Amino acid sequence: MLEIIRIPVLSDNYVWLVHEPASKETMVVDPAVAEPVLAEAEKRGWNITQIWNTHWHPDHTGGNAEIKQATGCHIVGPQAEKDRIPTLETLVKEGDLVRLGNVIADVIDVPAHTAGHIAFHFSDEKTVFVGDTLFAMGCGRLFEGTAAQMFDNMRKLSKLPGDTMVYCAHEYTQSNGEYALVAEPDNEALKKRMEAVLAARAKGEATVPTTIALEAATNPFMRAATAEILAERRIAKDAF
Ligand code: ZN
Ligand code: FE
Asked: Has this prediction a pTM greater than 0.85?
């Protein structure tokens, strides 16, 4: 069983600290910065042994070098972005397996936000780390890819079991939900979810992780019936 800690950093990033108790290994997903991550691990008496990056953006890799220097940890990330992440040591792609102590994640290619973006899926733990590909009621912007690619990503992720916990890298839920209500004004599950989200955000609470089932019911990008609809929604959200 993994223990997963959310560390809010910068304006809206979440860094995930993942501990595997049997082996005492601890891994960090997408450290934007180092200091709060090192502090949280130290507070818990956990030794960081690995960093896993989903994509090259600095708000996902900015803490790599400093955490490596402080802990000697090993850094894993997307093969297709090796030139953009000079700190990478192990390069992975779709279908590769990555081990954290006694648990294993498989790598899923999810290009579109960046050209080599990957997700890490712990199938036995029903847990997936999706970086900036899937958000609560949203998806990543298409900086280096197409709506057709993002549509394929949404199809892949929607095939995971509904109770899979989805750990994304930003607290974008409220603004995503406000757009989602424009895209699907008659979606009752969406309306109900937004009430809960607004209440949580008013109290300063986080709204992630989410689940695949909740996204399948309320996420206008995962629910887009065609790549063309996803494209229209992405353009509309960019301007929202
Ligand atoms: Zn990004
Ligand atoms: Fe990001």
From this structure: yes
